[in-house]
């Protein structure tokens, strides 16, 4: 699903500003709208590895939201389009329909039809079991931004748990930075040459099932996915003018996963484990750890969380998501003040080489409608053999100012 | 003053007299120690309020600091009375706009810690969170999480202090001590009117111990002819000079909400 770049975002923005400008909240309760616009500035602190990469980057994002409910809120239509206009990287300028679906709520079931986003998982450093939506990697390398996924989703709420069934027609390919972008592979990925091992290619219809249940303080989820892997293998290839590129290959896989959380007192103990076949040999990966929260720190009302997780992938270091034998340590601070100031500081360190990714994510509300967010990522001690070697000089400081509606 | 109903001899006393033949029994069934009387007052207040089933209301919070600066919060509340256990609470955030769509779900329990979930709309993620930070401020206001969560009887021990007049009403003054060690308070002093057992004022004492905050309720109105609910709750922090005014409107009781509306699996669809 491709959308014309640049102009698309401006069209959304101008239409929306006309609707929003001067209006206060709509009085008709069935229709709700909202969303945000934001300006983002990224500043890279070191010179780039390649001459075509830039040291700074500005972009504009717009993501309105519209929702309409009827039949006593048993039916609801939700529409969330998205667009980013990027100064340096034409591949980062892109649009998407994040959500466009109809939800019908029954007595003990729900049916969702359309494009939507689903989140599965309990860990913080990475989300191994979160498979339904494709990663919009060009947005952020942490992989938390997702593309909308067409689906028919039936959820059954029963005494023995919650059962989710998915039929997923329409495959979304992962987004990758272009030639001028930073935080990318070297050589760059050429998504136009994407390969599919299935004859059906993008038309392959995928399916997933998940059972989740709560046993007192324990939350368990077991899931299985059959279909085109959202995670491609990146294989060496060539672009027309004899430029080396990486070509994504999407295989049909079977992935089984488990997610587990034990909540007790101020402790959260977490586990995500998965195994996948169909993409080379069968392999397994897991993330496990805990979060401990100190409440009312120094009697200030602030909360401080201490996080630690271990990341393991049986394939070793050569493949994405690159965290094959790593330790994550983090601190989550929430001031619980009027401005909702909060920060998450963390490091992910490779146990053997010592390569470290250091991150800060912080945000604070300004006034009643604005939010200022800071993001810092620094890489250190990256040996040439490490897959993140290509981004070793892509340390950055990012500021985003968003206006919410 | 007419004898309050709980002091009149009733079945429990007759049962005790019958048990005298078995040997080991106190000589009186009247709650007359301050602790028993305090518990009896609170139990009666709870009894009078029983049967409200479910409740929905719109909440507006105005946070003020000493300099006169204000900040607003808009929320919608849904409450389901617990059958054998604590209440279930759903709080949907509408304002400020950056947290619009966030939902906080709490299942209160009589015997142990609450279960709590937070729905984050940006990630579409339902997180089961640690409920232990009860002393923390709710949305930056002067209400702590433990102030807004269900005031289950078993969460405190009680002591009747005295009678008093508050805003022209005859009141019981009852002291209560949080059982949970994670509480930010050593004790609280509550005023309940004798006529309807409505809560009018609570003084909160912190761990120093010093008077930290005072909560005053006003604009009580009856719903379904017997359930009294306040229209306004004001929390004044004496140590910081900040205050929060919580206005509750659009009350609906016995709205037909069910357990399935308070299930963590449906938080992403709560509106």
Largest sheet of chain B: 13 strands, antiparallel
Strand order of the largest sheet of chain B: 6-5-4-3-2-1-15-14-11-10-9-8-7
Biggest interface goes to:
A-B, 51 and 41 residues
Major sheet of chain A, described briefly?
18 strands, antiparallel, barrel
CATH architecture of the domain at 48-76 and 131-253 in chain B: Clam
| Percent of residues in helices of chain A | under 10%
Strand content of chain B: 35-45%
Number of helices of chain B: 3
Principal-axes geometry of chain B comes out as: globular
Please, could you describe this protein's structure?
The complex is a heterodimer of chains A (405) and B (271). With 405 residues, chain A is mainly beta. Chain A has one helix spanning 7-20, and strands spanning 31-44, 56-70, 75-86, 94-105, 109-116, 149-158, 161-168, 195-196, 206-215, 218-228, 233-239, 243-250, 252-264, 267-277, 283-297, 302-313, 325-334, 342-350, 356-366, 370-380, 396-404. Chain A has a domain at 290-405. In chain A, 3% of the residues lie in helices and 54% in strands. Chain B has 271 residues and is mostly beta strands. Chain B has a domain at 48-76 and 131-253: Lipoprotein localisation LolA/LolB/LppX (outer membrane lipoprotein receptor (LolB), chain A, Clam). Helix content of chain B is 10%, strand content 42%. Chain B has helices at residues 11-19, 34-48, 145-148, and strands at residues 54-64, 70-80, 88-95, 103-107, 115-120, 125-129, 156-166, 169-178, 185-193, 199-206, 211-218, 221-223, 227-229, 232-237, 243-253. In chain B, the strands form 2 sheets. A 13-stranded antiparallel beta sheet of chain B has the order 6-5-4-3-2-1-15-14-11-10-9-8-7. Chain B has a two-stranded antiparallel ribbon with strand order 12-13. In chain B, a hairpin with a 7-residue loop joins strand 2 (70-80) and strand 3 (88-95). The chains are: A mainly beta (405), B mainly beta (271).
């Amino acid at each position: 699903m491709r959308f014309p770049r640049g102009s698309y975002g401006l069209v959304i923005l101008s239409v929306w500003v006309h609707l929003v400008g001067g209006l206060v909240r709509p009085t008709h309760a069935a229709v709700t709208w909202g969303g945000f616009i934001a300006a983002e500035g990224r500043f890279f602190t070191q010179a780039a590895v390649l001459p075509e990469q830039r040291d700074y980057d500005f972009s504009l994002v717009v993501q309105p939201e519209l929702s309409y409910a009827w039949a006593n809120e048993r039916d609801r239509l939700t529409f969330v389009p998205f667009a980013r206009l990027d100064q340096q990287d034409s591949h980062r300028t892109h649009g998407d329909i994040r959500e466009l679906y109809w939800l019908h709520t029954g007595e003990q079931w729900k049916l969702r039809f359309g494009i939507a986003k689903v989140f599965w998982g309990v860990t913080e450093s990475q989300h191994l079991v979160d498979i339904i939506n494709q990663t919009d990697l060009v947005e952020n390398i942490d992989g938390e931004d997702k593309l909308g996924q067409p689906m028919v989703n039936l959820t059954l709420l029963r005494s023995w748990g919650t059962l989710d069934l998915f039929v997923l027609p329409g495959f979304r390919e992962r987004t990758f930075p272009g030639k001028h972008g930073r935080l990318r592979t070297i050589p760059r990925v050429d998504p136009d040459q994407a390969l599919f091992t299935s004859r059906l290619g993008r038309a392959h219809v995928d399916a997933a099932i998940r059972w989740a249940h709560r046993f007192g303080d324990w939350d368990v989820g077991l899931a299985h996915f059959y279909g085109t892997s959202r995670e491609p293998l990146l294989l060496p290839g060539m672009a027309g003018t004899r430029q080396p590129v990486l070509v994504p290959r999407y295989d049909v896989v079977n992935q089984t996963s488990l997610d587990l959380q034990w909540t007790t007192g101020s402790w959260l103990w977490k586990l995500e484990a998965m195994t996948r076949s169909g993409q080379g040999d069968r392999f397994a990966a897991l993330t496990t750890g805990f979060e401990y929260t100190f409440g009312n720190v120094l009697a200030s009302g602030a909360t401080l969380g201490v996080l630690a997780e271990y990341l393991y992938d049986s394939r070793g270091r050569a493949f994405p998501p690159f965290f094959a034998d790593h330790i994550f340590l983090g601190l989550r601070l929430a001031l619980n003040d009027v401005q909702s100031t909060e920060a998450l500081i963390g490091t992910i360190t490779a146990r053997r080489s010592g390569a470290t990714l250091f991150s800060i994510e912080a945000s604070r509300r300004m006034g009643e409608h604005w939010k200022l967010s800071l993001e810092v990522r620094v890489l250190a001690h990256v040996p040439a053999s490490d897959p993140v070697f290509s981004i070793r000089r892509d340390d950055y400081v990012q500021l985003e100012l968003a206006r919410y509606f | 003053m007419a004898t309050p109903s709980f002091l009149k001899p009733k079945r429990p006393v007759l049962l005790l007299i019958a048990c005298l033949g078995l040997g080991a029994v106190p000589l009186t069934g009247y709650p007359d120690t301050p602790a028993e009387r305090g518990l009896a007052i609170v139990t009666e207040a709870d009894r009078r309020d029983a049967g409200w089933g479910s409740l929905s209301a719109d909440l507006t919070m105005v946070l003020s600091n000493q300099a006169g600066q204000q900040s607003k919060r808009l929320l919608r509340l849904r409450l389901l009375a617990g059958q054998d256990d604590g209440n279930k609470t759903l709080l949907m955030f509408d304002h400020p706009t950056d947290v619009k769509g966030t939902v906080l779900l709490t299942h209160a329990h009589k015997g142990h810690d609450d279960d709590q979930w937070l729905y984050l709309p940006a990630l579409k993620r339902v997180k089961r969170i640690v409920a232990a930070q009860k002393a923390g401020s709710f949305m930056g206001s002067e209400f702590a999480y433990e102030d807004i969560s269900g005031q289950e009887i078993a969460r405190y021990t009680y002591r009747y202090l005295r009678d008093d007049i508050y805003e022209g009403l005859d009141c019981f003054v009852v002291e209560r001590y949080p059982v949970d060690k994670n509480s930010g308070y050593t004790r609280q002093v509550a005023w309940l009117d004798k006529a309807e057992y409505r809560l009018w004022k609570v003084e909160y004492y912190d761990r120093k111990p010093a008077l930290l905050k005072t909560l005053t309720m006003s604009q009580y109105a009856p719903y379904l002819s017997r359930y009294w609910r306040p229209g306004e709750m004001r929390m004044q922090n004496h140590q910081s000079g900040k205050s929060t005014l919580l206005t509750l409107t659009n009350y609906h009781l016995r709205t037909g909400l069910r357990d399935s509306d308070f299930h963590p699996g449906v938080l992403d669809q709560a509106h």
